[in-house]
Design a protein that fits this description.
The protein is an alpha+beta fold and 513 residues long. It has 13 helices and 21 strands. The strands form six sheets. It has a seven-stranded mixed sheet with strand order 10-9-8-16-17-21-18, with helices on both faces. Strands 6-5-7-1-2-13 form a six-stranded antiparallel sheet, with helices on one face. α12 crosses α13.
């Protein structure tokens, strides 16, 4: 019998009640909003309604007009990208000008601020103001082509800002958090997140077990990749579930949200003790037959010395690494229309803005809390439908309900098909020892950690216990490139650290001799 047809994916246009990511001035400012009737965004000193975004496809570009946001004319844009002009030339330019004779003494511009204010009151567009500034600059013609482009871009960002409508996806959400609040997602970079999903072999009709202590970023990425076909169970240590509120920004439909479950690790481990789990097969001895909540909480503060072997009979005693758990991403105002998470000009690292033309603006962003406003006012609202006719709630549904007894019984008999662990503040070795028996045999697993030593200790423990094969620790590395005519080179700033990932395959533990 053929498997059921997967439900359709998220619509391509923005609808009322959905979450959107607004990219203002090409990444200078990033903000999450929920498209409610009263939602507004403040650009400069002007507050604009977000109603013009309704019905527009994701990826649309808007400009700031006299009455608010106006869609840019894609057929004949009034402010084409400056990077496109040299690309059309197709030949090397004979550039003999340079900037050595230019002196910045504030006398080159003859257009005063009062003249600019008068143009604004008369209804002049931002592009008209930029052209007036260029025409009244006595040094613009003496600048190099690249300096002219930079000057235009700088003035355009100030007087003619552009707003890009982006769909919140695993990549955009991870990149946005990593720019301003990296500790809330465990310093997980987007390439590390993609490696986690690939190494855990997350695909359609999978049953994924996840330990998500990074605010729900991993669980949301898994649910997005499953596309409403499989199941993801987010387990947690102790009695209080960890926050997975970032899921609400993914715009998952009701079918996809209904396949996200939350269950304490002690409940899942009870399946093993009852003899239903794949880890309880005869001959597969499991040391951790039960997981009391007290022992799990004490494991966070009880690191132990471990010997790490390199396979050549050489061992080194390694001091324990105590990792402080970052606060989970608790996005209280992610789902509020008028109080967004606003990320302005990311705080660079120590040498992030070396060789950068413009100094990044560091504006204090509001502290994101628990996503309460995304679902504020739990009142029954009319059901919205996407292009495909599938119901999509105008407000994000709350994910993470408890699994049914039938589903838990199925997991107990067949096991999970993959495991993903992203718990930077927990002792990885003890947690993984409790989680691996819940997997089916030959199931892959991937474990993320900010530091190398906890994963090395866990890897040694798995090698000694012979619970897994194909063990390897991967350090992701990412560098972006600027691709422009005569200016193609790696970016002068990059993040040199993206965490580490331990991956492997669970196997049947041999009988003790």
């Amino acid at each position: 019998m053929a498997p059921p047809t997967p439900t359709a994916v998220i619509p391509r246009e923005a609808w009322e009640g959905c979450s959107v990511l607004l990219d203002i001035n090409d990444g200078d400012r990033l903000a999450f909003f929920r498209l409610t009737p009263g939602a507004t965004v403040k650009i400069g000193d002007k507050s604009c309604s977000l109603q013009p975004l309704l019905g527009r496809p994701f990826g649309s570009l808007f400009r700031l007009g006299p009455d608010g946001l106006l869609p840019c004319n894609t057929a004949a844009p009034d402010a084409p990208s400056q990077d496109d002009k040299p690309r059309d030339a197709g030949q090397a330019q004979d550039e003999t000008r340079d900037n050595r004779s230019l002196v910045d003494n504030n006398t080159a511009q003859t257009l005063s601020s009062e003249d600019i204010d008068t143009m604004k009151r008369d209804g002049a567009s931002g592009n008209a103001i930029v052209e007036a500034l260029i025409a009244n600059s006595s040094t613009f013609g003496n600048k190099t082509v690249f300096s002219q482009e930079k000057y235009k871009l700088k003035k355009q960002k100030k007087y003619a800002p552009k707003v890009l409508l982006r769909r919140p996806s695993s990549r955009s959400i991870c990149e946005t958090y990593f720019k301003k609040y990296p500790a809330r997602i465990g310093f997980m970079r987007v390439d590390a997140l993609s490696l986690l999903l690939s190494m855990a072999n997350v695909g359609a009709y999978s049953d994924v077990l996840a330990v998500d202590m990074v605010g729900g970023l991993v669980v949301g990425a898994v649910a997005e990749r499953l596309g409403g076909t499989g199941y993801v169970c987010s387990t947690y240590l102790g009695s209080a579930p960890s926050s997975i509120d970032i899921i609400r920004m993914y715009n998952l439909n009701s079918e996809m949200t209904s396949r996200i479950f939350q269950a304490p690790l002690s409940d899942l481990c009870s399946l093993r003790s009852s003899g239903n789990a794949p880890g309880s097969v005869q001959g597969d001895v499991v040391e951790h037959s039960s997981v009391p909540d007290e022992s799990l909480q004490s494991s966070l503060k009880k690191p132990s010395d471990t010997e790490v072997s390199d396979g050549n009979a050489q061992s080194t005693t390694v001091q324990p690494t105590v990792v402080e758990a970052p606060e989970p991403a608790t996005d209280e105002h992610l789902n509020q229309g008028d109080i967004p998470i606003d990320i302005d000009a990311p705080e660079p690292a120590k040498n992030e803005h070396l060789n950068q033309g413009d100094i990044p603006i560091d504006i204090e962003a509001p502290e994101p809390a628990t996503d309460e406003h995304l679902n504020q006012g739990d009142i029954s609202m009319p059901e919205c439908k996407g292009n495909n006719g599938n119901p999509i709630a105008p407000k994000a549904l709350r994910a993470g309900k408890a699994p049914s007894p039938e589903r838990k019984k199925y997991w107990g008999e067949h096991g999970f098909s993959s495991l993903i662990v992203a718990a930077p503040g927990h002792e990885v070795e003890s947690v993984v020892a409790d989680l691996l028996p819940l997997l089916s045999y030959s199931a892959p697993f991937a474990i993320y950690h900010q530091y190398l030593q906890p994963l090395a200790t866990c890897m040694h423990s798995l090698q000694v216990s012979k619970m897994a094969i194909g063990l390897q620790i991967t350090e992701p590395w990412l560098r972006e490139y600027q691709v422009l005519p005569s200016r193609t080179h790696p970016h002068m700033q990059m993040n040199a650290f993206g965490g580490y990932i331990l991956s492997g395959i669970r196997i049947h533990k041999p009988d003790p001799q």
